[in-house]
């Protein structure tokens, strides 16, 4: 017959308390969602449901009361939600500005292409006319400013 290992009730209570504190502070270690539910409390504390409800129901109820008093949203999550709204507004403004800049850039590219064609045509016309004399380009002298 195998012997069962004795449970450390105080360690379990400490695990529940610290898990509750982390969830309420918005800094969970094991919880993926950070939601303030008993399931997340159990996941965060690494305790089984039967253990928590059997021997530590008072701590589970205390956690639920603290959640209710905090309006069910951790303070850190509230701050993130507020920042999200601000960032979303900035993103909309920046997206509009980027669209305007892209339109200006496209127009400038078209203008450059058109001017390049005009310059090419003007050079061809000058070469074909034959009565234009080219002047020598100015020479650069070393030592002269």
The low-confidence runs, each spanning 5 or more residues with pLDDT under 50, are none
How far is the first residue's CA from the last residue's CA? Answer: 103 Å
- The assigned structural class equals mainly alpha
Average pLDDT metric: 85
Description of the molecule:
The chain is mainly α and 145 residues long. It folds into two domains: 9-73, no CATH class; 84-129. It has helices at residues 9-25, 38-45, 49-55, 57-69, 75-129. Helix 1 (9-25) packs parallel to helix 4. The longest helix is centred in the last third of the chain and has 55 residues, at 75-129. It is rod-shaped and about 110 Å long. The relative contact order is 0.08.
Which tags fit this structure?
mainly alpha; coiled coil; 145 residues; 5 helices
Topology record:
Blueprint lengths: L8 H17 L12 H8 L3 H7 L1 H13 L5 H55 L16
Helix pairs in contact: 1-2, 1-4, 3-4
Q: TL;DR of this structure?
A:
The chain has 145 residues and is an all-alpha fold.
């Amino acid at each position: 017959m195998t012997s069962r290992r004795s449970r450390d009730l105080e360690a379990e209570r400490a695990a529940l308390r610290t898990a509750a504190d982390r969830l309420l502070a918005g800094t969970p270690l094991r919880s993926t969602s950070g939601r303030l539910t008993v399931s997340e409390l159990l996941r965060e504390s690494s305790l089984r449901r039967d253990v928590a409800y059997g021997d530590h129901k008072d701590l589970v109820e205390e956690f639920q009361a603290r959640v209710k008093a905090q309006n069910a949203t951790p303070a850190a999550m509230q701050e993130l939600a507020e920042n999200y709204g601000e960032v979303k507004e900035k993103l909309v403004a920046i997206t509009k500005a980027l669209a305007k800049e892209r339109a200006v850039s496209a127009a400038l590219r078209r203008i450059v292409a058109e001017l390049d064609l005009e310059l090419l045509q003007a050079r061809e016309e000058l070469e074909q006319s034959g009565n234009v004399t080219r002047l020598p380009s100015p020479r650069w002298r070393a030592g002269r400013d």
